[in-house]
Amino acid sequence: MYSIADLQTVIGEALTRKHFLKEPTTLYEPIQYFLNIGGKRLRPVLTLLATNMYRTHIEESVSAAMAIEIFHNFTLMHDDIMDEAPLRRGKVTVHKKWNTNSAILSGDAMLILAYQLLADSPSEHLPEVLRVFNKMAQEVCEGQQLDMDFEETSTVSEEVYINMIRLKTSVLLGAALEIGAILGGANHKDRKLIYDFGVHMGIAFQLQDDILDVYGDPLKFGKQVGGDIIENKKTFLLINALQLAQNKDAEELKHWFSSTEFNPEEKVRVVRAIFDKLGIKQLAEEAKANYAHKAYASLDKVDLPSEKKRSLIAFAQNLLIRES
């Protein structure tokens, strides 16, 4: 069995060998730049881990794994445009370094490159791989639209929020795993269970991100702590706080999230104190643990010896204890 570090190396080397600098360079240079920014390559690693659960050789899954990574980066490039983000992983975003039109077109080209790589999958598996990939790609777009819709919606329920993060974040993890399992020769029952593992783990992963945004160590988190509060993002924590707050706490939250001029540090401090008073962090931790439990329960039903699942379990545990 490959280790996670081994598979990160495999993906990194495969992406290095894949030269994207063609003509016109103004289309392909932003792609190369964005991919070189790095990242942990978690999603393609999941594809290779799933294949490795069923077969020793993973070479036939590398192209599909790269397709997953390039698709993910395509969504990030377009997200940066929609969010007007100046930085991605500490580097200037493509639309700032070049311009918005270049970022849109280079992102479109990345999506096409992802399909080209996916088409290199073994022909006997290609129809199913495409079906899973296409369903996921459409759902990611649905999730992104819901997230943008939330900006104009005064109230969002926890159920609706969970569905949004399932679509925007989690289905990509599930599809990455299911595609790897397909290419490894898994049966339909195992494929569904592995997909469910990825989706539930993805929800737990996003809930951990919500918690870290408010309670993370600034030196380890890698982003501004309290950024979601400053930007009025409707996260699991805020949604539950708005539902539970009464009297003065409810008035305080309404004031801070309706004000257009405020001191960011003071806003984060006051809102976090209300979260603490209402036990919001504990609620989020419990929800995260619940989805992690669902994920492990699905993986436990996969018809493989436990040693074949260890790398995937280790991967999931690292996601949920991360501090950045």
What does this structure look like?
The chain is mainly α. The protein contains 16 helices and two strands. It has helices at 4-17, 25-36, 42-54, 62-83, 94-97, 100-118, 126-150, 158-184, 188-215, 218-221, 227-230, 236-244, 247-258, 264-278, 280-300, 310-320; strands at 87-88, 91-92. It has a two-stranded antiparallel sheet. A hairpin with a 2-residue loop joins strand 1 (87-88) and strand 2 (91-92). It is globular and about 60 Å long. The mean pLDDT is 94.
List descriptors.
single chain, 324 residues, mainly alpha, two-stranded antiparallel sheet, 16 helices, 2 strands, globular
Ordered list of secondary-structure elements with their pairings:
Elements (H helix, E strand, L loop, with lengths): L3 H14 L7 H12 L5 H13 L7 H22 L3 E2 L2 E2 L1 H4 L2 H19 L7 H25 L7 H27 L3 H28 L2 H4 L5 H4 L5 H9 L2 H12 L5 H15 L1 H21 L9 H11 L4
Antiparallel strand pairs: 1-2
